[in-house]
Amino acid sequence: MTTSRVFEIDDAAVMLGLLGAGDSVLAEVERTFPGVNLLVRGNQMSLSGPDVAVAACAAALDELRSLVVAGVPLTPEVARESMRILDESTAVQDEKPLPILARAVLSSRGRTIRPKTEGQSAYVAAIENHTITFGIGPAGTGKTYLAMAQAVAAMQSKQVSRIILTRPAVEAGERLGYLPGTLSEKIDPYLRPLYDALHDMVDPESIPKLMEAGIIEVAPLAYMRGRTLNDAFIILDEAQNTTREQMKMFLTRLGFGSTMVVTGDITQVDLPGGTQSGLRAARDILTGVGDIGFCELTAQDVVRHRLVSDIIVAYERSDAARPVAPQRQRTDGQKRRLPHQGGDR
User: Fold this and answer.
1) CB of 294 within 8 A of CB of 263?
2) pLDDT digits 0-9 by tens, 67-102
3) Residues 6+ apart with CB under 8 A from 225
């Protein structure tokens, strides 16, 4: 049976937000509900089509309108996630997009940073509710960016007195000596993603002063050894490239009044063959320990171009189907010898 329904939206700004830039949000709704004929005239949206499809489309539009009214910038990606949440909600777990996607993490430099997926919202909640949080997932899921936003928000509200950002330098040790420039210039490429996120959230002119005062510190993981980090928000990025020993060293730096967030992608380990990832080991060892949260993000939480999510899914499917090749064990006499290289030591 077919039916029709008319939405009236008196606020022109709400209507524009619901349509999206270049009617992109409207196009996303039409792709999601291909059986519904959707027509916009003035301040009215007319729906017609099968009963069930029209009812579902109407519910989706109602939720999208609530997001616009709440001040959430509506994009095709946000609309797609909102409709996915509605589609997967059940009578037992009746989830709505508004409380998930309208959560504000940080308002800075004229914009508000919010989670854009259900998984990201759960990740933000985990950081708020645990002393140590592990955010594990593929590239583009906002692991580092949202952790950084939480850190800046905690600093602004004086929950912590400083922010410490660190990453492992996979080429750490002797090889850094072969790079040109000062130590700071040598390690800068490893830390650049952290600087980039920081510049999005803090006035760039104030960052050098904050770093000089020790309120913001960006350093390689090796610099954490021997320290106790009190009253700080500490982020370890690219943690899949830590060894088991490095991860233990980092986690035991935790001091009073501090929060730690550890982020990484266990499918993108750059450690030498045979070296166990500290992130993978920590997940196996610490799951179930009180006040430590683990949040697994997936391809559904990717907020980059839509193709990024499709690429991740395709690789996961390929990896699952590929047989694991047996590893050969070298004897001492078979160990590969590296040619001598000159340079700083």
Assistant:
1) no
2) 999 888 888 888 988 998 888 765 445 678 888 888
3) 249
Tokens of 184: 């700071």
Which of 156, 159, 190 is closest to 172 using CA atoms? 190
Other beta carbons within 10 Å of 325: 6
Single-letter amino acid code for the residue at 22: G
d(CA 143, CA 230): 23
CA dihedral 148, 150, 152, 157 (to 10 degrees): -170
- Tens digit of each residue's pLDDT (9 = 90 or more) over 153-207: 999 999 999 999 998 876 534 345 555 566 566 667 767 778 888 888 998 889 9
Question: Which residues are 6's β-sheet partners?
Answer: 46
Question: Which has the closest alpha carbon to 37: 20, 54, 18?
Answer: 54
Q: Are 231 and 255 in contact (CB under 8 A)?
A: yes
Which residue stretches of 130-182 are H helix?
Answer: 143-156
Cβ neighbors of 247 (< 8 A, separation 6 or more) are 239, 262, 278, 279, 281, 282
**Residue 29, token pair as written in the block:** 């709704």
Helix, strand, or coil here: 275?
Answer: coil
Structure-block tokens of residue 240: 């899949």
d(CA 227, CA 265): 26
What tokens does 301 get? Answer: 């939480």
What letter represents residue 293's amino acid? G
Choose among 78, 58, 83: nearest CA to 17.
Answer: 78
Note the residue count of the chain: 345
Q: What is the SS3 assignment for 163?
A: strand
Long-range (24+ apart) CB contacts under 8 A made by 120-123 are 120/146, 120/297, 120/301, 120/303, 122/295, 123/295, 123/297
